[in-house]
Amino acid sequence: MARIGAAVVAVVLAATALLTGCAVPNISAPPLSTDPTTGSTTTSAVVVPAEIDIPRIGATSSLVGLGLAADGTVEVPPVEAPMQAGWFTGAPKPGEPGPSVVLGHVDGGGQAGVFARLHELEEGDEVLVRRSDGTGVRFTVTRVEQVPKADFPTEEVYGDTQKPELRLITCGGTFDRSAHSYRENVIVYAELA
Amino acid sequence: MKVRFVLACAVAGLALTAFGAGSASAEGDTALGEGAVARFQTYGQAEEPYTAIGIDDDVIKAGQEVRVAASCQTEEFVSSKIISPALIAPDLVREKGAPANSVLMSMGRIHAEVPAGIYPISFTCADREVTGQFTVVADEEPEPRARPAAQVPVKPKGAPETGSLDQAAPAEDGNLGIVVGAGAAALLVAGGVGVQAYRKRGQF
């Protein structure tokens, strides 16, 4: 009878995890790659973005470093861990002048991703980034847009800015089953509060 | 007979000769400043009275302040206007008591809008017009400012793939909840079936 109870508990736990989208809670993973601009890996001696918190949509995650993939696209966090967000190490760090970029999955393997509700953000919403030295940077959302992947606004996302800014990126739109990919990206633009 | 003297040379002696000092007047050296005599280009007349006029600057550009230097080796000289289409300068004036072989100086300014080229300059000495020339050079193109490095030096290509790994679960607009809910229900059903099967097996 005890075995029956254990089996039921396991099934219920698995179902709960799926329903809450928290199958993989915050992960403190090491940087995924080297910095494409300096060739150096992120070390504990360097102050780097460590965690992101978006209160309005309840999105919280540690941040892993993301570089460039071999095909020149930006790396993304492991899709098997969809609750993990990451920051693009080839861009300025949050709080530095320029466009910092944080990426997160909308889903992964049928589980909700850390940025599943990113499209719900509105102008004025708050985004907090905590650094590895314990300091934090507060950004305010200025706009949210959803664009076809074919028209991804590279210059708008990665182009120079006068002040510290932040971009949050995930997937959105309809799902292309033949391509196993979403057709659009949700991009949130935020400025230093 | 008019003889043209070009004194754009590095030999001070030549310059002094051109100014007709003959005996290398000490006043001439002083008036032009050390080394200055060798710099400017002037045109003069070797016959008495010796005359010359020129500009004592290595490089002459539009809008620049320049030093006009002249010689009129006659005791009669008192003053003269300086005539040039490219510059404006106060009259050349011999100071009271200055010797005839002293250099006449006047600080002038090249017109701001004058294009690069060769321009005449003249004054009057003993009722004769003395003419020289000088060259205005173009302003060098300013060095282009170094372009600051891009804040994102290497921009990623394409659009990020931030979703999927399939399992047919598009997360857009609440669909995810439905699909996840269905998956969870299936798991619960499977669990229930398992429990039922266990019970049945226990009955045998």
From TrEMBL, chain A:
Gene3D superfamilies attached to this UniProt entry: Sortase
Keywords (A to Z) from UniProt = Hydrolase, Signal
Q: Name one GO molecular function term.
A: hydrolase activity
Q: Name one Pfam family in it.
A: Sortase
Signal peptide: which range, if any? 1-23
State the PROSITE patterns in the record. Answer: PROKAR_LIPOPROTEIN (PS51257)
Output this protein's name. LPXTG-site transpeptidase (Sortase) family protein
Q: Which organism is it from?
A: Actinophytocola algeriensis
